[in-house]
UniProtKB/TrEMBL annotation:
GO terms for cellular component: membrane. This is GtrA/DPMS transmembrane domain-containing protein. It is a multi-pass membrane protein. InterPro entries: GtrA_DPMS_TM (IPR007267). Keywords: Membrane, Transmembrane, Transmembrane helix. Residues 20-145 form the GtrA/DPMS transmembrane domain. It is found in: Membrane. It comes from Saccharopolyspora hirsuta.
Amino acid sequence: MAPQAPETTGAKRYWRLLSRFAAASAVATAISQVVFLVVYALGAAPVAATITAWLAGAIPNFTLNRRTWGSTGRAGLRGEILRYAVISVTTALLAALATHNAEALAQALFPDARSAQVAVVWGAFLGTYAVMFVLKFFLVDRLVFPDRR
């Protein structure tokens, strides 16, 4: 039997997790941003575009983060999904609220410029996820995969 490497602890552990979390978030963000831009630019309401984009990014994000924290198999999967869903849905709701309000502002500021409206609403969508990034990291670490600590 091969010796196992000691568990990384402390600051090294958090930097490793944070870098992998950032990579997973980058993948999920790229997917959700493209989906949001396409769906919203095609005329969907901001809330519908947000929900569609959230779904497109949440699944790969959960899968990649599950690997990051070393969770495998079916043991605990249901609880991980439920805890992750609460955090993810809350973030999506905040993004939906932000994009809804941003659309009202964009239409007032740029009534005849659809591209400017799309840019403002997209900025609100991206900004919400940027602000939530750090909070989500700690919530995922402490609540979604606590047994992996």
